[in-house]
Write a structure and sequence with these properties.
Length: 276
């Protein structure tokens, strides 16, 4: 029986490419023959709309699943790609925060729900909101690994320390063996000095691996959601598409070395924030 690798795509900064990564990495994992489920866990529902499931017209969503009000089968939707499924989000997911606050084990709701579905998949990707809220903590606890998109711009390294501290808290206080799949440079322009500097800097200072693949700034990636398609179905020949295909290959290659990677605490993180 399959046992999915569950990867949470997380950065509390907005606009860094989390949703673009979750949607397009998911599409290429599926295209590589890996059965993949994308869980939209952002009340904005951008991943859902990128795959043609408008959050405003979604009646049963991840919210109902997490609260036990709907069977997983009732909320899993197909996409236009074979092997690629979606659990959509809708705006009322924002209310989950308040509903969970007084619950015992409030950090474990998404993980518990995913127990019912992860056996059916090779990969589960969780698209998280731009915050370090209880929703994000639920996403981290549900994940085995976290993938951190980092936009190649001046302020993008700020906040990474806080994110790694949150990961560390989840590991220590909630006794959850979360690992870092890696940091991913997004909107990277190798002709720009600043992009190259940020790239160099993160490769030098990030205490975990940085993916070899850099995601370039790409019009095809930006416009694909307006066609309700992953870039693979919109412009598979574009640089953005090819980059996400390479990223999927890198992720799949990690299957061979998984478990071998040692995780250092966020305390070893040092002065990374001020490094550039
Ligand atoms: N590599 C890229 N090239 C061009 N535009 C991008 C790229 N990645 C993301 N975008 C665009 O930037 C905006 C923010 O990306 P998104 O994936 O929604 O970020 P997040 O989920 O972190 O908020 C979106 O309009 C998206 O289409
Ligand atoms: Mg997003």
């Amino acid at each position: 029986m399959a046992m999915a690798r569950v990867i949470a795509v997380c950065n509390q900064k907005g606009g860094v490419g989390k949703t673009t990564t979750a949607v397009n990495l998911g599409a290429y994992l599926a295209a590589a023959g890996k059965k993949t489920l994308l869980v939209d866990f952002d009340p904005q529902g951008n991943a859902s709309s990128a795959l043609g499931h408008s959050p405003l017209h979604t009646t049963t969503s991840v919210y109902h699943g997490v609260l036990g009000h709907a069977e997983p089968k009732a909320i899993i939707r197909p996409s236009q790609l074979y092997n690629f499924h979606l659990i959509p989000a809708a705006p009322h997911l924002a209310g989950l925060l308040i509903e969970l606050v007084n619950e015992k084990d409030r950090e474990h709701f998404l993980r518990r729900f995913l127990h019912y579905v992860r056996h059916d998949y090779d990969y589960v990707l969780i698209d998280l909101p731009p915050s370090l809220s209880l929703l994000t903590v639920n996403g981290l606890v549900a994940g085995d690994e976290v993938l951190i998109p980092v936009q190649a711009e001046y302020y993008s390294l700020e906040g990474i320390g806080q994110l790694l501290e949150t990961v560390d808290l989840v590991k220590r206080n909630l006794h959850h063996p979360l690992t870092i799949a890696g940091a991913l440079l997004t909107m990277y322009d190798k002709r720009e000095h600043l992009s190259r500097e940020v790239g160099k800097n993160i490769r030098r200072h990030f205490p975990y691996q940085v993916f070899d693949t850099e995601i370039p700034r790409s019009v095809a990636l930006a416009e694909a959601p307006s066609f309700s398609k992953p870039v693979l179905l919109h412009r598979p020949d574009s640089n953005g598409a090819l980059a996400y295909r390479r990223l999927a290959d890198e992720i799949i290659a990690q299957e061979r070395t998984r478990g071998a990677r040692e995780i250092v605490g966020a305390k070893n993180f040092g002065n990374f924030n001020v490094a550039i």
